[in-house]
Amino acid sequence: MTNSETAPRTTPEDHPYAPEPASRLDWAALAPDVYKAMVRLDAASQQGLDRTLLELVKVRASQLNRCALCLDMHSKDALAAGESAERLIQLSAWEESPHFYTERELAALELTEAVTVLTDGFVPDEVYERAAKHFGEEELARLIASITVINAWNRLGVTCRRAPGHYQPDGQRRP
């Protein structure tokens, strides 16, 4: 017998999932000026950058930071922007599956990891130089800013325990 044959069938109203945890704090409502500033910073950092590349970067940083809210949001945004499910699935193992990505995307992902995981040390020169080969200076500055911004959003999301699963892409840019 397979697991599907032995598992009880459930309906959406009667599913075996764990309950959704409560959010700790609605920081955006409590500090709306900070939230609005973050939204403006996020929008400014993204100007001139490819949306699909940005979503890959945001998903990868969110994977590293274990931000479920941002994973939900940016995976959905990436799919809405035309990204393939296959590339999103492979993203957590991009170093083992580089053939799914362009050299430019690989450089951005490598830079994302270096900027996100600072506990491993400074951003190595070779990582920065590889990114600089694929991005002009202004574009690189905005990419670094975008990586920094998604890391800030991730930290807010995981600290306040914002629950994933409710986001629906609507064409507006969100964290």
Automatic annotation (TrEMBL):
UniProt-listed NCBIfam families: ahpD_dom
InterPro entries membership: AhpD-like (IPR029032), AhpD_core (IPR004675), CMD-like (IPR003779)
PANTHER family: 4-CARBOXYMUCONOLACTONE DECARBOXYLASE FAMILY PROTEIN (AFU_ORTHOLOGUE AFUA_6G11590) (PTHR34846), CYTOPLASMIC PROTEIN (PTHR34846:SF10)
Domain Carboxymuconolactone decarboxylase-like: 32-113
Region (Disordered): 1-20
One Pfam family it belongs to: CMD
Species in which this protein is naturally found: Streptomyces flavalbus
Family matches, as SUPFAM superfamilies: AhpD-like
Protein name: Carboxymuconolactone decarboxylase family protein
